């Protein structure tokens, strides 16, 4: 049987890319523990279109 836990998959989307108006998007999929981090997470990830590290926020 599969484990039942608090880990869920979340999608992170670049905030700077949206504002720049350039075509395409930068998204990452990761997991988080809902019990430990109930709020939306923000991580610095690499954006290949902008070629730099930017803040990626969790989306629904």
Automatic annotation (TrEMBL):
Belongs to the bacterial ribosomal protein bL33 family. GO terms for biological process: translation. Gene3D superfamilies: Ribosomal protein L33 (2.20.28.120). Keywords: Ribonucleoprotein, Ribosomal protein. This is Large ribosomal subunit protein bL33. One of its GO terms (cellular component) is ribonucleoprotein complex. It comes from Faecalibacter macacae. Pfam families: Ribosomal_L33. InterPro entries: Ribosomal_bL33, Ribosomal_bL33_sf, Ribosomal_zn-bd. HAMAP family: Ribosomal_bL33 (MF_00294). One of its GO terms (molecular function) is structural constituent of ribosome.
